[in-house]
Design brief:
alpha/beta, 7-stranded parallel beta sheet, 19 strands, His-Xaa-Ser system radical SAM maturase HxsC
């Protein structure tokens, strides 16, 4: 399933607001009036009347409005009668549903899904800045001031459903927000106390013990920081992240977080520059970081810098099965909690199937045509949509025992 999370999918049907605004999708026209000012009413059927007081109105599917004494069915600019901020929603975003949170930019006719209530793959982008420059970065860093992202999240978080199971915090490097990151985690703990929070970080900023203590003092009951280590050799890790001294800072960051009782996940992306020393890294982890809460070994997502450096970084998963198997079994025998992300079952040795997880976010997850005849499809995590750029020669239908 591939979803567009943003785009110019709005056609204005009435007088629009001058600037962007945030709202929550509501499919109940009888919602309490007191709460309507932050709700965006989504109509999927024709209507002669519209309830007043909603922040905006979206007409999706067969939704139309015929009121105020003039015919507005099927779109077109309105004149009088129609409420402010009424838009026809394009087909690409009609998956939006009750409880989702969106940003509407009237000037550009754009809409962005910031949170999808039914999705298990919600992530909060907090900055596009980063102090690493990883050769395979799926979201290459930018240098512009994007402090508005955190300001926006202060409005978005209170609109999220309390039953949300998990949220990711991602960047860029979230820890560059400093106290802003601590504030965000505290906000999540207050509004969504039953929601697990997973922060993707390079760990370097947490080499400052005072900063790590600030995160630990939030006391979030279900918080984990995912931090990559790409080699047991400092120079190889520093090369992958393109930052001299990063290996030392990252290790100190991990140690500080654990000292402050924050859960830590070790992450490792497999590509041509990293796979050869994967077994040595596994031994390094069991000797030095056995207390880590989880180890995730991940297939490469072919987007961003990975796409730009494709010829240098691509390696068929069949060609690192030996290193992957040795590392996973060593970590498992040592008692570490280890998983394989982003790799389909057909390219893995059967002894590793029990470690494979369905890890690819729902909006960029897909299967190939050959998967239609595979009996393991329902158990398999499938592929990134970008995987069509290079395909393993091991992709084929398989049967599970």
């Amino acid at each position: 399933m591939l979803l567009e999370l943003s785009g110019r999918h709005l056609q204005s049907l009435s007088v629009p607001s001058e600037g962007p605004f945030i709202g929550r999708i509501c499919e109940d026209p009888h919602a309490p009036e007191a709460a309507r000012d932050r709700e965006i009413l989504l109509l999927r059927e024709a209507s002669d009347t519209l309830p007043e007081g909603f922040r905006a109105y979206l007409l999706g599917g067969a939704g139309s409005y015929e009121g105020g004494g003039s015919n507005r069915r099927g779109g077109g600019a309105s004149a009088g009668g129609a409420p402010r901020d009424m838009y026809r929603l394009g087909a690409a975003m009609r998956y939006l549903a009750h409880g989702d949170v969106v940003r509407i930019d009237p000037r550009r006719g754009a809409i962005a899904a910031l949170y999808r209530r039914s999705s298990p793959s919600n992530s909060l982008l907090v900055t596009e800045r980063c102090d690493n420059y990883c050769v395979m970065c799926s979201q290459p860093p930018k240098t512009h001031d994007d402090a508005w992202l955190l300001d926006e999240l202060r409005a978005v978080v209170p609109l999220m459903a309390p039953e949300t199971k998990e949220l990711g915090i991602t960047g860029g490097e979230p820890a560059l927000l400093g106290d802003g990151l601590i504030e965000l985690v505290r906000l999540l703990e207050q509004h969504l106390p039953r929601t697990a929070v997973h922060i993707l970080s390079n760990g370097r900023r947490f080499s400052d013990l005072a900063f790590a203590r600030s995160l630990g003092r939030v006391g979030h009951p279900d918080l984990m920081v995912g931090i990559p280590i790409y080699s047991d050799l400092p120079e190889e890790h520093d090369y992958v992240v393109q930052a001299r001294g990063a290996f030392s800072q990252t290790l100190r960051g991990i140690l500080n977080l654990k000292r402050c009782r924050v859960s830590v996940e070790i992450r490792f992306v497999v590509h041509a520059e990293t796979y050869r020393r994967l077994p040595e890294l596994a031994h390094f982890l069991t000797r030095n970081l056995l207390f880590a809460d989880h180890v995730a070994i991940m297939g490469l997502e072919l987007t961003g810098f990975a796409r730009a450096n494709l010829d240098t970084l691509w390696v068929d998963p069949l060609d690192y099965r030996e290193q992957l198997g040795e590392a996973v079994h060593h970590l498992h025998r040592a008692g570490m909690n280890v998983s394989i992300y982003n790799l389909p079952l057909c390219v893995l040795d059967t002894s590793l199937h029990g470690f494979a997880r369905k890890s690819i976010s729902d909006w960029k997850h897909t299967y190939f045509d050959v998967c239609d005849t595979c009996s393991a499809k329902t158990a398999c995590g499938g592929f990134f949509a970008s995987s069509s750029l290079r395909r393993s020669r091991g992709i084929r239908p398989i049967s599970l025992p």
